Amino acid sequence: MVAKTVLILGIESSCDDTAAAVIQDGVILSNVVAGQKVHQKYGGVVPELASRAHQQHIIPVVDTALKEAGVDRKDLNAIAFTQGPGLLGSLLVGSSFAKTLSYSLDIPLIPVNHMQGHVLAHFIKEKEGENKQPEFPFLCLTVSGGHSQIVLVKSHGNMEVIGETIDDAAGEAFDKAAKILGLPYPGGPLIDKYAQSGDPLAFEFAEPKIEGYNFSFSGMKTSFLYFIREKMDNNPNFMEENRDDICASIQHAIVSFLMKKLKRAARETGIKEIAIAGGVSANSGLRKVVQEHAEKFGWNVYIPKMAYCTDNAAMIAITGYYKYLKGEFAGLDITPKARMQV
């Protein structure tokens, strides 16, 4: 029997953000995220350092989320946590804490697929606001540092990946380009920042030739590296003198490739309910182009608030909420997985 009021605590620890959120009947009450600055000097996430930081952050983050929500842990109906995909050491911290809390409170434990969480972030309700949600079926372009997918979403629990990257992800391509340009980690947001002052057509980069709805970014990253090396050989000040145009051009290349595949999927499936999700959905260039396509092709477009684009626990809690309604619980023998399919 489902409780009249359902309170879900969500815990996210797949990479380098420790997050906790509380959702009541689908409405967000709190969403707390603790980042890890320790990785900046290494130019990327160091798994061992990430798991250590999660151990330091998880208790205060969960405590803060409960306090901000005005909820006592004894009022919770279930604990949802990220089972995967992600860094195994980081996932272990979150899953171990979730299992311990679930056992101590004698309430259900709900494992959540991180990528499904990104998709279902569109269903997070807020106390104030229009709470616009996509209708089923819809297509979701899910793009992050580790994944690039086109997902056919048939219901809250029925999703099919119809296109995905065969090598690197879009977010990784952004970060790699930023690293080549000497920008600090995380470089993706800086590419976006400088691109807004640059000419997106200043430089061209070869577009990968991949069949169907799949993506590939390894070749684009390589061509960008060779392009910069060649220009720097002729002019050592090339990057400094052309930073904004370079950022605008590589962003245009990545976004154009993503949109080409999404546009094809929408045309061939006949679906006009279109959503974007994942960390790269925070990119202003992608958001702008999606809106332009919406006007051109009559799409109904859904883009999460910035707080629900990057890794967060609200998306884990909302996914946990829908799984709770269906009674999809796990035992304490559940284990995290570095790799998982949607």
How would the blueprint of this fold be written?
Elements: E1 7-12, E2 18-24, E3 27-34, H1 47-69, E4 78-84, H2 88-105, E5 109-113, H3 114-120, E6 138-143, E7 148-155, E8 158-164, H4 170-180, H5 188-195, H6 218-234, H7 238-269, E9 273-277, H8 284-297, E10 300-302, H9 314-325
Parallel strand pairs: 1-4, 4-5, 6-9, 9-10
Antiparallel strand pairs: 1-2, 2-3, 6-7, 7-8
Helix pairs in contact: 1-2, 3-9, 4-6, 4-7, 5-7, 6-7, 7-8
| Low-confidence segments | none
The level 1 CATH classification of the largest domain is Alpha Beta
Q: Helical segment tally?
A: 9
Q: How many individual β-strands?
A: 10
Q: What is the percentage of strand-forming residues?
A: 15-25%
Within the CATH hierarchy, at the fold level, what is the topology of the largest domain? Nucleotidyltransferase, domain 5
Shape: globular
Give the proportion of residues in helices. Answer: 40-55%
First and last CA, distance: 28 Å
CATH homology-level superfamily of the largest domain? ATPase, nucleotide binding domain
State the major sheet.
Answer: 5 strands, mixed
Question: What features would you describe in this structure?
Answer:
The chain has 342 residues and is α/β, with parallel strands linked by helices. The protein has two domains: 7-124 and 309-325, Nucleotidyltransferase, domain 5 (2-Layer Sandwich), CATH 3.30.420.40; 138-303, ATPase, nucleotide binding domain (Nucleotidyltransferase, domain 5, 2-Layer Sandwich), CATH 3.30.420. 42% of the residues lie in helices and 18% in strands. Helix 4 packs parallel to helix 6, helix 5 packs across helix 7 and helix 7 (238-269) packs parallel to helix 8. The chain is globular. It starts with 6 loop residues before the first strand and ends in a 17-residue tail after the last helix.
